[in-house]
Amino acid sequence: MNYSSEYQRKLTPVDEALKVVKSGDLVHYGEFMMNSAYLDAALAKRVDELYNVNIRTTTCPFQPKAVLADPERKHFIYNDWHCSGASRKLHDKNLCNYIPLTYHEANSFYYRGYVDVDVAMIKVAPMDKHGFFNFGTSCSLTPNACDAAKIVIVEVNPSVPQCLGGNRESIHISEIDFIVEGDNQPMPQLPELPISDTDKKIASIVMEQIEDGSCIQLGIGAMPNAVGAMIAQSDLKDLGVHTEMLVDSFVDMYEAGRITGRHKQLDKCKMVYTFAMGTNKLYEFMDNNPACALYPVEYTNDPYIIGQNDNVVGINNAIEVDLYGQVASESAGIRHISGTGGQLDFISGSYISKGGKGLICLTSTFKDKDGNLKSRIKPILTPGAIVTVPRSINFYVITEYGVAMLKAKSTWQRAEALINIAHPDLRDELIKEADKMNIWVRSNKIV
User: Which of 47, 270, 317, 382 has its CA 20 to 30 A from that of 429?
Assistant: First the structure.
């Protein structure tokens, strides 16, 4: 095959390519920073022609024009596998719905036929000499979505880094129906979140759980970023990386010499991930870098794959934890915030790992809209809150006041451990509630 001539044959003006979308179609929009704002804008122009087009994305970083053009949802119905801040705001207006999933199972939905994709619209890097277009910073479920799609449209964007695999990090020109050359907008960047003194205190406690040769997973948020910064400045040696999300702090750790991956049992010396979100520092580091390995999520997030590496330390945030040990990380009451993501996968996988630790980290308190101090460790979860990690799977919980290890503990032992890491001013009230719930005994001790 002459790839250059095939490229020219499939190269199509964007408005012409988007004519393939029909009413009632399911359209895959891409994932994370690889969502195409250019293709979305072209689809939005057809708002009055189309009805009941089901759009699916994963953590789109912008509010799609197709959604904003249809506030009554007669034309486009928007769904997100894991909500971004942009999707969250749309969800608040009933313009976006969340699709619950356990992340490592996502690709099975396509090959089991639970999701029939009519059109996949994705952003990719320029074609290489072998006819492949790299998926860039995300391939968690896009390869399987493209496999399932009747039609595949790609927007070629030269700002997309070439991210090495792993596997399934690219799509061949023979699998593509239409090629669109876009407006060449630079890769979107994730703004750095401010790190509070409380985040730093929690991070310092997390550091006590990490040893030389540990294999690290970091979730999103200021506190995991604080951990990354502390690791970079530490004297830890030979850390490995097996994570779902690659962020800027991994670059800092690598360049400081903390990450080598020499002691990993799988993908030795490779930083394994399924998507990346960050700044240009991260994207430039990833470009054609053999130290990084991009895999679909069915590999990175499979608890039994995670568990084959020793000393996995999974570090994730939460919104609240109840005295039974249930973790809510995706909603505040009925208000949707994010999604299950990889948190459940990595808590489960860390327990399978020899010497592994799955850490749920959260500040002990927050202030409500009236400025009142409220505990994030609660007798019961806020009504309507979604359980992300069941009490039977939860492992470690960390606040700025310490560590609670919950495995093999009874309900009263869990209550004691969790109240001991709650804010001191709020512990008495938690004890009263635990007593009412019959999960408190006279021998309980509060430090």
Answer: 317
Catalytic residue of the set 155, 244, 298, 320? 244
Task: Give the whole-angstrom CA distance, residue 122 versus residue 31.
Answer: 8
Tokens of 353: 């790992």
Query: How would you classify residue 24: left for phi > 0, otherwise alpha for psi between -120 and 50, otherwise beta?
Result: left
Please state, in angstroms and rounded to a whole number, the distance separating the CA atoms of residues 438 and 133.
Answer: 59
Cα(295)–Cα(164) distance, rounded to whole angstroms? 9
Contacts of 390 (CB under 8 A, 6+ apart): 326
Strand duo 132-134 + 97-98: pairing: unpaired
pTM of the predicted structure, to 2 decimals: 0.96
353, 300, 293, 338: which is closest to 105 by C-alpha?
Answer: 300
Give the chain's end-to-end CA distance (angstroms, integer): 72
| Interatomic CA distance for residues 316 and 293, integer angstroms | 21
| Alpha carbon separation from 262 to 68, 239, 273 (Å, rounded) | 48, 8, 17
pLDDT in tens, 203-248: 999 999 999 999 999 977 788 889 999 999 999 999 999 999 999 9
**In this structure, are residues 186 and 336 in contact, taking their beta carbons and an 8 Å threshold?**
no
419 SS3 class: helix
Report which DSSP code applies to 266: S
How far, CA to CA in Å, does 408 sit from each of 291, 391, 404? 38, 11, 12
Q: Which amino acid is at 402?
A: G
3-class DSSP state of 229:
helix
Is 244 a known active-site residue?
yes
- pLDDT tens readout for residues 319-350: 999 999 999 999 999 999 999 999 999 999 99
Q: Is 173 exposed, middle or buried (0-12, 13-18, 19+ CB in 10 A)?
A: buried
Q: Alpha carbon of 421 to those of 63, 164, 185, 380, 399: distances in Å?
A: 38, 42, 46, 16, 6
Find tokens 């779902």 and name the residue: 244
Measured CA to CA, the distance from residue 347 to residue 396 in angstroms comes to: 9
* C-alpha distance from residue 422 to each of 271, 361, 406 (Å): 35, 12, 15
Separation CA 245–CA 218 (nearest Å): 7
Determine the length of the chain: 447
Give the number of C-alpha atoms closer than 13 A to the C-alpha of residue 237, restricted to the C-beta side. 0
